[in-house]
Design a protein that fits this description.
This protein has about 290 residues and is mainly alpha-helical. It has one domain: Farnesyl Diphosphate Synthase, CATH 1.10.600. It contains 16 helices and two strands. A two-stranded antiparallel sheet has the order 1-2. The radius of gyration is 18 Å and the shape is globular. It starts with a helix and ends with a helix.
């Protein structure tokens, strides 16, 4: 993990515009939002999935950076006063607090197309049509049928009590879509998987994506702000529906364990090539931050 995290930090440094490039303040804000923090779970998943298909790490690096830029832009916008109005992210002041709201908004706006730019200008697949399909996968995962749509549902559900299937639907989009994209894009950088293998991999990605959100909900009410690097307890304060508010803390933890077991089972036919995906399922569920 440490090796890939360090590699991704260096790659993101290269892909992002330099702070001295005009407009300097915008580029400083973009670099502030992306660099020097975060677990890099999505890049880790992309590299782990790439091992299944013997993908060239240089290709995986590109798709992982693209996904991470989309993720970073979503966090910048999520923290804005018009959304969650948060002041702390990854152990430092949120982008709009460090700069200003307009600059933070533009930083997110600029990170999104930059993700597609780097994915388009580097060869990450053997055929042009395969690379176009990868662009489409990231676009769908980021848009109204993925992450942005999930965030819209989240905002609309503040103060409401959802059923468990309704909450799962929201998080399959808000959190899960980009995690699934990271796994699928990482695998697509190498040789093709057959339909059954791809189905198992996508099921793994769905379960770890949901598990990630369940654990996030648990940690939001069970860990400190210092540990999380972001404001603890904000979901309850904002009256957001969560797995903890619906199931209770113990049952939410039990659900995370069920999803972890389901993720491992989905990988059973891949053998030793899936060891890092297995490890990441454990990390996602057992993490304390």
């Amino acid at each position: 993990m440490g090796t890939i995290q360090a590699r991704m930090e260096a790659a993101l440094q290269r892909f992002l515009p330099a702070s001295e490039t005009v407009p300097e303040r915008l580029h400083r804000a973009m670099r502030y939002a992306v660099l020097g923090g975060g677990k890099r779970v999505r890049p880790l998943l992309a590299f782990a999935a790439g091992e299944l298909t013997e993908a060239d790490p240089a290709r995986v690096e590109v798709v992982a950076a693209a996904v991470e830029m989309i993720h970073a832009y979503s966090l910048v916008h999520d923290d804005l006063p018009c959304m969650d109005n948060d002041v702390l992210r990854r152990g430092k002041r949120t982008c709009h607090v460090e700069f200003d709201e307009a600059t933070a908004l533009l930083a997110g706006d600029a990170l999104q197309p930059l993700a597609f730019q780097i994915l388009a200008e580097h060869v990450v697949a053997d055929r042009p049509d395969a690379q176009i399909e990868m662009l489409k996968i990231l676009a769908v995962a980021s848009g109204s049928r993925g992450m942005a749509g999930g965030q819209a549902i989240d905002l609309a559900c503040v103060g409401k009590r959802l059923s468990l299937p309704e909450l799962e639907f929201m998080h399959i989009h808000k959190t899960g879509a980009l995690i699934r994209a990271a796994v699928v894009l990482g695998a697509r950088c190498g040789h093709g998987l057959d339909a059954k293998q791809l189905g198992r991999l996508e099921h793994y990605a769905k379960t770890v994506g949901l598990a990630f959100q369940v654990v996030d909900d648990v940690l939001d009410c069970d860990a400190s702000t210092a540990t999380l690097g972001k404001t603890a307890g904000k979901d309850a304060a904002h009256e957001k529906p969560t797995y903890v508010s619906i199931l209770g803390l113990a049952d939410a933890r039990a659900l995370a364990e069920e999803l972890r077991a389901e993720a491992h089972a989905a990988l059973s036919s891949f053998g030793a090539t899936a060891v890092r995906l297995h490890d990441l399922a454990d990390f996602i569920v057992l993490r304390k931050f």
